[in-house]
Amino acid sequence: MKKVVILVVLCSLFVVGCSVKKTEELTDAERFANEYSISSNNPFCYTTLNNLLELLEKDESFILFVGNSDSEWSSLGAKALNRALKEEKVDKVYYFSPGSIKNKQSKKYKSLKDVLDYKKSNLPIVYIIQDGEVIDYVDYSVHENSSIDDSSIKQLKKEYIDLVSEYL
């Protein structure tokens, strides 16, 4: 009987292990969906500090979402931005989390902060970058005195749609 139970447990673990994707096998959209509890049908692509600086140096044009998945407001921002991007048919947005930077005193990080005029207390921030320059952004600083509700989501979504449609 013990052998049968052990065999059943081992088979169950094998089946579960085969059906769950490992983190490194997930697409950026799937990782972002897991992190922010949104649909995996989203345009978010993770970027690193080095890649972001490279994009800026190459005078690229793109949309950048800076957030922290531990923040309620960043989660709200991700949901609202995802809805806005779907309406505006945007297929790629870079995602950067300052929390991923271990050395906040590095020259590279300070350089990024200078370019983006990044203020940690105002996450999330959505930037419109054209030819390597910030042309506009929404930092939704209203959240400091507000609670999260449907009207907050609608207001933020409207701000994002206005920002994105101006860019397009």
Task: Give structural notes.
Strands 1-3-2-4-5 form a 5-stranded mixed β-sheet, with helices on both faces. Helix 3 crosses helix 5 and helix 4 crosses helix 6. The radius of gyration is 19 Å and the shape is globular. It has a single domain, classed as 3-Layer(aba) Sandwich (Glutaredoxin). The protein is α/β, with parallel strands linked by helices and 168 residues long. The mean pLDDT is 82.
CATH architecture: 3-Layer(aba) Sandwich
Q: Write down the domain tally.
A: 1
Provide the structure class: alpha/beta
Helical amount? 40-55%
In terms of per-residue confidence, which ranges show pLDDT below 50 for 5 or more consecutive residues?
A: none
End-to-end separation: 67 Å
Which percent band covers the strand fraction? 5-15%
User: Could you say what the CATH topology is called?
Assistant: Glutaredoxin
Provide the CATH superfamily: Glutaredoxin
The strands making up the biggest β-sheet line up spatially as 1-3-2-4-5
Our count of helices gives 6
Number of strands: 5
CATH class: Alpha Beta
Note the overall shape.
globular
Main β sheet profile? 5 strands, mixed
Reading the helices and strands in chain order gives: HHEHEHEHEEH
Mean pLDDT metric: 82
Query: How big is the Rg?
Result: 19 Å
Q: How is the secondary structure organized here?
A:
Blueprint: H1 2-19, H2 28-36, E1 44-46, H3 49-57, E2 62-66, H4 72-88, E3 93-96, H5 107-116, E4 125-130, E5 133-138, H6 150-167
Parallel strand pairs: 1-3, 2-3
Antiparallel strand pairs: 2-4, 4-5
Helix pairs in contact: 3-5, 4-6
